[in-house]
Structures are given as C-alpha cells and as structure tokens.
Design brief:
Elements: E1 9-12, H1 17-31, E2 33-36, E3 39-41, H2 45-60, H3 67-73, E4 79-82, H4 90-94, E5 106-108, E6 114-117, H5 119-124, E7 137-139, E8 158-161
Helix pairs in contact: 1-2
Length: 172
C-alpha cells in the first residue's frame, strides 16, 4: 500500500472481518465478480492468495472497531481502511438528534428560513445528522455569514485542515 510522506493508515475491523473476507474471496474464485454490470471478471488463485495476505497484515494493524473514531483521528492524506464487517457505529448512534446544545450553531439559509445547520454545527455536532461525518477543516476565526454567501468558492472562516481527505476503495 503506497503512502505519501507523513500519512497514516488507520484500519477498522470487526472480529469476523477475516472470515467474511475469506468467504468473499472463495465466492469470487468460484463465480467471479463484477466491477460494473458490464464487466465480469474471474479471480485467479494467485491474486486471491495475495489479497488474503494483504488483508491479514491489515487485520494485524486494526486499532478501530467503529468507523467514526478512525475518521476523526485522521488528517489530510491519511487513509482509513474498512475491512469487511457489519458496522453499527454504537457511539455515533448514541449521539442525540437535534441536540439542544447544538442550537447556537443554527443559521438562516439563503432563502431566509431559520434552522439551517452551519459548518460550525457540523463541526461541533458531527453525528447529529450523519452516522459517519467527515469534517474537512477546523473552525477558523470569525463567524460564517447568515445567510450564507452566494459565491461558495471562498470559505469565509477557513481554518486548517482537520480530518481525512477520504479515498474510499472497496476491497474484495
């Protein structure tokens, strides 16, 4: 796995990740797999062994059992590898929805309707609307304009990058 200088790879797994992977590889060996509906491929034995070897190494590096903590700990150019499994995200799921503590971060939208969520809202309450939230930058000085700017190419209170630039890649 290629890494850029200073980047880290965080691995998320479940106790049955390797068993699921082994079953998936066996299925792909027997029946092949689809890249897209018009592209069906076979999985060679050598490729299957290599895939298992890589994933065994990844499993040894696993330090996370929920996706959100791995994403939150990540920064620019880091990678989050999610191994096969069922991820119910109990910590993120336990976060309150419409938490009153997040109310100060609500703004008016561009139509003047109140109750729109701001970037500060997403930053302070990442799991209020999303089970897994990828936050791209820290909060900068000042306050986001309310209503938001029409031209969104310039983030008015830009802070330094704070979370992963995600490259989602599925592994067989």
């Amino acid at each position: 796995m290629r890494k850029t200088k200073g980047s880290r790879t965080r691995v998320v797994c479940q106790s049955d990740s390797l068993a699921r992977l082994k079953a998936s590889i066996a299925q792909a060996r027997k029946h092949g797999y689809d890249i897209r509906p018009t592209d069906h491929r076979a999985l060679r034995a050598r490729t299957a062994r290599l895939l298992m070897r890589i994933n065994r190494k990844l499993f040894q590096r696993c330090r996370y059992h929920e996706i959100q903590p791995a994403v939150t700990a990540s920064h620019n150019d880091d990678r989050v590898v999610i191994m096969p499994g069922l991820y119910t995200e109990p910590t993120a799921r336990a976060a309150k929805t419409h938490d009153p503590a997040c109310a100060p971060y609500l703004i008016s939208n561009d139509r003047g309707d109140t109750g729109a969520v701001s970037y500060a809202y997403q930053f302070h309450c990442p799991n209020d609307q999303n089970l897994i939230a990828v936050i791209g930058r820290a909060l900068g000085p000042g306050k986001d304009p309310s209503p938001p700017l029409v031209d969104r190419h310039n983030i008015p209170t830009s802070g330094r990058a704070s979370a992963a630039t995600c490259r989602w890649r599925a592994r067989a």
